[in-house]
Amino acid sequence: MTSTLIQVSHFSYRYNQESEVALKNVHLEVAAGEFVAMIGANGSGKSTLCNALVGLIPNYFVGYSEGRITVDGKDTASVSVGELSQTIGLVFQNPFNQLSYTADTVAEELAYGLGNRGVPRDEMFSKIKKIAELMQIDELLDKNPLELSGGQVQRVALASAIILEPKILVLDECTTQLDPIGSEQIMDIIKKLNESGITIVMVDHDMERVAELADKVYVLQHGSIVLGGTPEEVFCSPQLAEFSVSPPDYYEITKNVIQPGYREKDFALTESQAIALLQEVLYEDRNQEPQA
Amino acid sequence: MKIEIKNLKHKYPSGGEALRGINTAFEGSDPIAIIGQNGAGKTTFAKHLNGLLRPTEGQILIDGESIHEHTTAYWSKYIGYVFQNPDNQLFLETVRKEFEFGPKQLGVPRHEINDRIDFVSELVGLKHRLSTHPFDLNATEKKFCTIGSILMMDPKVIILDEPTCGQDVEGNQRLTEIITYLKNNDRLCITITHDMKFVVRNFDQIVVMAKGQILMSGSKNLVFSDTKTLLESYVTPPPITRVGQALGLKDISFSKEEFIDHFTRRLHQR
Ligand SMILES: Nc1ncnc2c1ncn2[C@@H]1O[C@H](COP(=O)(O)OP(=O)(O)OP(=O)(O)O)[C@@H](O)[C@H]1O
Ligand SMILES: Nc1ncnc2c1ncn2[C@@H]1O[C@H](COP(=O)(O)OP(=O)(O)O)[C@@H](O)[C@H]1O
Ligand SMILES: [Mg+2]
Ligand SMILES: [Mg+2]
Predict the structure, then answer these.
(1) What is the complex's ipTM, to 2 decimals?
(2) CA distance B21 to B183
(3) Are residues A211 and A254 in the same domain?
(4) Nearest residue of chain B to residue A209 (CA atoms)
(5) Which family does it belong to (chain B) (predicted)?
(6) Is pLDDT of A172 > 80?
(7) Is A47 in the pocket of ligand 2 (CB under 6 A)?
(8) pTM of the model
(9) How far is the CA of A220 from the centre of ligand 2 (A)?
(10) Peptide bond just before B31 cis, omega within 30 deg
């Protein structure tokens, strides 16, 4: 039995100074241990939903909300953001929003959240050392967080969320400034965290990655969830283009070169699937060569 | 306009060497992409090209003249840099004011500023946002606002530092339009990005950086076939190219069309 960890019920939200709603009647359930991806055009409400999941909406932002969100049984409107952060952590779209602006070094930055939680000093040091190695920021520990490259800040932002070991990690476009190999390495770490039981909610524009990692994909448009399901259900949906989302490139190339009905699956969504399927096509063709 | 970079080194006061001897030159208007590892020095390098940062060693010549001869304010007429983090660039109360600021400083006449606002706000997709406070824009709109305010100064060379971050399909399309516009109007666009799909779609001159140096410069064909350099600079080819390479297709593919063509040819060769 999987248990529901996040329950969003008919949730709507409008920012104070805006005339349009940012979220409209959103209904969503996330099971414990699930890897959920949220996709959709810019301005469709992804970050707003992230803010709502961690309680920044309605506790911090000024606006009007309707409906209800519970995270691990707690109603986000009635517990403090601090209390909620023991359960659910957010990595902001802009890594600079993650920084405390009180720390002189990256090590202090990482210690900041732990300190707030009353973690003893020696335990703190060993945690910082461990996370720094994992995230490959050991060499940055003595540096000023404001004197880093964009990608380096993004790694620090991720590390400062992961170090708190929340049950649920909400990742709002958290690798946009990472180099391609670094980004793959970080996603491997996220995947391992998920395998160890941590629930992941990830916003991303990289459809190849979404198809590779997510158990469930939700598409947002104008503040509503307009499509949801497994990567296959979502990326094969004929409606997808209406929501300004394209399927992974692997889907488009395999769909184009493989005869419909070639196998029970005549398309691929991930790199390894695509290579295997296309190799099969090439190989099979070779076997048929004598008859041709 | 020609930019020559000779043995450029940069050491931040607090840190190590961010640039360890860059030698290269940029000319013409074929768009250039700079790619490579985090911390490689891409931003540090770009900030030297209009004098935002001063070399610790080495020199930068613009049409033969040392960049030291004039201030950043002077060079900004010729070379515009769009910050990686928009919050470092935006400081006025409305998008319109951000747009007006640069050309006003340059003494561009009022009517021309108005014409430019019409054109630029359309190009960057902020026509309906001119009276919005930049801090009420979302992340990608902010980026387009900073791009717009540099376009308003109409420099000969424009450097975009990670404009692709967080862009959706439409945003990427808009960036392509901006890059095409610049090329067609004889302006050189240099773009720093980690999005390799975007790179192969828009650029055929690529500079690869790692650890404070340029490892290689060349066409996308050359760069994405050089596995060793890619690995050293923490870059991977885009998805379609990777599949083509894994299948051992003879010609490298960058677009769906190329892949389909190369794959079908291989099938029929048998
Ligand atoms: N203001 C600063 N003070 C001290 N060191 C800095 C400063 N800005 C950057 N650095 C260091 O200089 C090196 C190069 O940084 P730079 O920002 O140029 O890298 P980058 O290639 O643009 O990386 P990214 O892809 O992450 O944006 C890094 O090691 C970084 O930590
Ligand atoms: N802090 C904010 N104040 C006012 N409006 C906002 C704020 N953040 C987002 N919005 C608005 O809410 C809508 C959804 O934005 P957002 O959640 O950022 O979308 P996404 O993350 O999918 O790009 C947009 O219309 C945006 O302009
Ligand atoms: Mg967002
Ligand atoms: Mg940079």
Answers:
(1) 0.94
(2) 29
(3) no
(4) B239
(5) Belongs to the ABC transporter superfamily.
(6) yes
(7) yes
(8) 0.95
(9) 12
(10) no
* A65 inside domain: yes
Domain containing A38: what range? 4-236
What residues make up the domain containing B175? Answer: 1-78+155-224
Q: Does B21 share its domain with B149?
A: no
Q: Is residue B177 part of a domain?
A: yes
Q: Is B69 exposed, middle or buried (0-12, 13-18, 19+ CB in 10 A)?
A: exposed
> Is there an atom of ligand 1 within 6 Å of B212 CB?
no
* Beta strand pairing call for B17-26 and B213-218: unpaired
Strands A23-31 vs A4-15: parallel, antiparallel or unpaired: antiparallel
Q: Is residue A241 situated within a structural domain?
A: no
**What residues of B are in contact with residue A245 (Cβ under 8 Å)?**
169
Residues A196 and A289 in one domain: no
Written as six digits, the tokens of A43 are 């301005």
**Candidates B38, B196, B246; nearest CB to A275:** B246
Are residues A265 and A195 located together in one domain of the fold? no
Considering its fold, how many domains does chain A have in total?
A: 2
- Do A152 and A256 fall into the same domain? no
Task: Report yes or no on B85 lying in a domain.
Answer: no
Whether B167 sits inside 8 A of A183 (CB atoms) is no
Instruction: Identify whether the C-beta of residue B58 lies closer than 8 Å to the C-beta of residue B211.
Output: no
For residue A285, the model assigns a pLDDT of: 54
The DSSP 8-state label assigned to residue B83 in this structure reads: -
Q: Note the pLDDT tens digit of each residue in B226-261.
A: 999 999 999 999 999 999 999 999 999 999 999 999
Task: Evaluate whether residue B174 is within a structural domain.
Answer: yes
Give the Å distance between the CA of A47 and the centre of ligand 2. Answer: 7
Same domain, B56 and B22: yes
**SS3 state at A248:** coil
Give the separation between CA B83 and CA B43, rounded to whole angstroms: 9
Q: Within this chain, do residues A68 and A12 fall inside the same structural domain, yes or no?
A: yes
**Residue A48 CB less than 6 A away from ligand 2:** yes
Angle between helices B95-105 and B139-151 (to 10 degrees): 20
Residue A127 makes CB contacts below 8 A (sequence gap 6+) with: A110, A114, A119, A163
Same structural domain for residues A46 and A98?
yes
Q: What is the CA(B247)–ligand 2 centre distance, in A?
A: 42
Give residues with Cβ within 8 angstroms of A74, minimum separation 6: A83, A84, A87
